[in-house]
Request: fold
Amino acid sequence: MGKYAGMTKERSMLDTAISEHAGHFVDPYNVETLDVLGPVVQFLTPPRDDEPCVMRGTIPPGVVVPLHSHADSETFIQMAGEIEGLSQSPEGFVWVAIRPGDIFHVPGGAKHAFRNLSTGPAVMIIVSTSTIGRFVREIGKPITGESRHSDPPSADAMQHFLKTAAAYGYWNATPEENASVGLSPTPR
Reply:
């Protein structure tokens, strides 16, 4: 349970009486955790119905999230580490540094990408829709305990990702489009 092992009696009692209809604490060390082709996503709230979905994302050093877009908006609150986010201006694409405390909002339909050029992991809270959460759940591989998937995504995993993204109506850049904004053609 990590730091939640020493919680107050009141907090512990509340956690034992959790229901979908009561306020409660979320133990971030005991949530669904997925490897999403390199980045790790933890569901802090599950992707249910039309409710917002809150996730914690960790992008390891050297890992990128390729250029893409989707109809749903996403808001990224940087918690630790530094990452670069790709934004589109009238002059073209520009990389912006996102540091702890920064909030990076991506409106629905906006093309965006991320890259971690630092030596440490970048951790952010992601607030989006249940649709985005369901997509992440469909493409991610479960992580349990201390296990981490460190191998680059397989060709089958990439095909599954692209097929699932197309089914959701998401746009993904070609390898050439990714290279034109400074990204390698694969997520690792």
